[in-house]
Design brief:
- It is a single chain.
- The chain has about 230 residues and is of the alpha/beta class.
- It has one domain (about 10-230): P-loop containing nucleotide triphosphate hydrolases (Rossmann fold).
- It is built from nine helices and eight strands.
- The strands form two sheets. Strands 2-6-1-7-8 form a five-stranded parallel sheet, sandwiched between helices.
- Helix 2 crosses helix 5 and helix 4 (about 100-110) packs parallel to helix 8 (about 175-190).
- The radius of gyration is 18 Å and the shape is globular.
- It starts with 11 loop residues before the first strand and ends with a helix.
- The structure holds cytidine-5'-diphosphate.
- The site of cytidine-5'-diphosphate has 17 residues, from helix 1, helix 2, helix 4 and helix 8.
Length: about 230
């Protein structure tokens, strides 16, 4: 038997897009519908950022950062419909959404050393599971051969309103103007950085979610994937 015969190639659905374009909610629900694993790479960048901030590291290369990355253990735990992010066994699901982590995450995500470490973890997960993977560089860098690629966009004001609703549900009271500014700045940092910037893969399908409900965008993506999987394309 040829060795290649024994290799299982997993199916990857890549979802990229700017901040608050609805990737997380969409990816989570599409994954549930397809019975795939949900891989939230933004949560991984947020988790590294949290640990760096706790260790009082600045977003720059240093021997301490190298050591921290060597020891880093990030896991996802699924309970029912919810997924928790664990760092060294500690549940950081809530903390990685704090305003401070959100403000600093793009600066840490721009560091090649951090990107290489997480890239390795992400590819290992993708090799072992069928995944719906969301982020900024999934279709371009992490899984350039992904079978399905989507790029979500939405007007800045609509994204800001969605993020405001989310934060208010979590008990925070930021202003809409402050969120517009934060999203604009993060998109600028993410798309202009040197390493793996936010970019649409040439073969990604663009979905403008400005006028869509979550159910509609989930249905669009899941139906597209299901149809092709059934056809064996
Ligand atoms: O949920 P939201 O769109 O606000 O952000 P996220 O997906 O949680 O990602 C947080 C940050 O992580 C982004 O602003 C990027 O700086 C970084 N990130 C990245 O560089 N590459 C990825 N594949 C995913 C996230």
């Amino acid at each position: 038997m040829l060795f290649e015969d024994a290799i299982t190639v997993s199916t990857i659905v890549a979802i990229d897009g700017p901040a608050a374009s609805g990737k997380s909610t969409t990816a989570k629900l599409v994954a549930q519908r397809l019975r795939f694993m949900h891989l939230d790479t933004g949560a991984m960048y947020r988790a590294v950022t949290l640990v760096c901030l706790e260790s009082q590291l600045a977003p720059q290369e240093s021997p301490q950062l190298t050591q921290l990355l060597a020891d880093l253990d990030i896991q996802f735990k699924t309970t029912g419909a919810d997924q928790c992010t664990l760092v060294d066994g500690r549940d950081v699901t809530m903390e990685i959404r704090s305003a401070e982590v959100t403000r600093q995450v793009s600066a840490f995500s721009a560091l090649p050393e951090i990107r290489e470490r997480l890239l390795d973890m992400q590819r290992r997960i993708g090799a072992a599971h069928d995944v719906v993977c969301e982020g900024r560089d999934i279709g371009t860098r992490v899984f350039p051969d992904a079978r399905f690629k989507f790029y979500l966009v939405a007007d800045l004001e609509v994204r800001a309103q969605r993020r405001l609703d989310e934060l208010q549900l979590a008990g925070q009271q930021p202003s809409l103007a402050a969120i517009v500014e934060e999203l604009r700045e993060r998109d600028r940092e993410d798309s202009t950085r040197e390493h793996s910037p936010l970019r649409k893969a040439e073969d990604a399908i663009i979905i403008d979610t400005t006028g869509l409900t979550i159910e509609e965008q989930v249905d669009l993506i899941a139906a597209h994937v299901e149809t092709r999987l059934q056809q064996g394309d």
